[in-house]
Amino acid sequence: MSSNNVVIKIAQPYAVALLELAKTKKVTKKVSKDIQLVQSILSQSEKLKIFLANPLKTVEAKKQVIIATFGDQISEHTLSFLMILVDRKRIAMLDTIANKYLKLAYQMESLTIANINTSIALNSEQENLLTEKIKIMTKAKEVKLIISIDPELIGGFTIQIGSKVIDTSIKGQLRQMASHLDMVAT
After folding, report:
1. pTM greater than the 0.85 cutoff
2. InterPro entries, alphabetically (predicted)?
3. 134, 112 contact by CB (below 8 A)
């Protein structure tokens, strides 16, 4: 079993526990927003990730940093959950736990998540058209677009919904042509 699978197996019960707490307290939407905020801050700060994952840093130091970083921006439920992760030495898995939690929360809300990589930013009209097309393709009631910009795509975009990937990028087309030429050459 790879280490990534082990991390996912460890993260699952924590994500489920947070979702159950959020449902019980009727704060699922707030906790989901909190988790998205935490993920956003973590993705922007490599130093914070390294600090939280460092086993040489004390539990108290990690708690102080979490309170200073997130304290006034997230609910007490989410903050308490982060403190439990620190106490149980699972804070280094926060990103995986957060991803798992959001996946479960979106499933509960019948929400389909589409990861979009695009070479340039999409305007709101393009986002709305893309959302409608994805709703038709997946027969989902709601679609959440997670958009990231990747200039290496040259042009176009890729869509990932679960394990399905749709690649309309120029980079993908060039890769396909190169693959085809390799097959023809052999």
Report:
1. no
2. ATP_synth_OSCP/delta_N_sf, ATPase_OSCP/d_CS, ATPase_OSCP/dsu
3. yes
